[in-house]
Amino acid sequence: MSIQNVAIIGGTGTLGAPVLKALQASEFNVFVINRLGSKSVYPRTQVITVPDDLNVDEVAQALREKSIDALIIAIAGGLVESQRKLIDAAFNGGVKRVMPADFGSCDSADEKTNEVLPLMKGKKGVRDYLLSLQEKERDGGKLTWTSLITGHFFDYGLTTELLKFDVKGRKAYILDGGNIKFSNSTLAFIGKAVIKILEKPAETANKVLYVHSIHVTQLELLESLEKATGDKFERIEQNSEEELKVVRPKMLEGDHDAEEEVVAVWGVVASDWKEREGFANTLLGLQEDDLDETVRKAVAELQ
User: Which residue numbers delimit the NmrA-like domain (predicted)?
Assistant: First the structure.
């Protein structure tokens, strides 16, 4: 299998923008899928315009007309119905590889994670749907998929308190003593990982792959942040179980901020990919980033 023509949907989002940038710098022929009613603009980029409701037949026809080999779905992971429509369109349109919106802090392939976070159940449901299609015959060969699980978005997370640090306020919310290793990936690194997957279609077909560019504890990260800022942070100890007891009920009632807090906590205490089956840094030829250098860059952007 060879991949030449790649389409991405969600190309202006937090993740989609850096993935699109990586695609544009690659050897692939890149297209952006844009809904008819979207105000997003993509200068000097090939655009495939599709109906706002993602009508499967029309999207499939557009994908087939452009001979799209791979579809990257970079919309919000909770948009399960939209993802299923895009997958059906990819199947009907002869696409060879789909990467669903499985990127992110927590492991949707983990049973305990799905219990803690309903959002992950949705992601698992999308992947199960891909599994149901992968053996079905169609013109142009079978549809394959790759789920890429990245851990917390590291640089984005430092600016949004996703990693449990309020950098501007110089506060560190330390979970369970702060010595738990957890996996993180910068947005640029995730873009690089997507390219590597597309460059190795046979080795990455029908797999859940885990990557990270920063493998760190909160205490190690705190030391790096204090070094980068020249300031001591106020250290606030938290127990993850107690924190989840407070915020999970709010999340289940539809509180978006509470859901973000559950993701933040669980992405620290239950997201160490280093020994996980499917850890793919070596397979993809990816190197971890230098912690202090990455933190310095992120802090500089906050000034």
Answer: 4-245
Count of CB atoms situated within 10 Å of the CB of 236: 11
180: number of CA atoms within 13 Å, CB side? 20
pTM score above 0.90: yes
Average of per-residue pLDDT across 43-63: 96
Q: Is the pLDDT at 89 greater than 90, yes or no? A: yes
Residue 35 Cα distances to 91, 116, 189, 209, 265, angstroms? 19, 33, 27, 29, 34
For residues 16-35, average pLDDT:
97
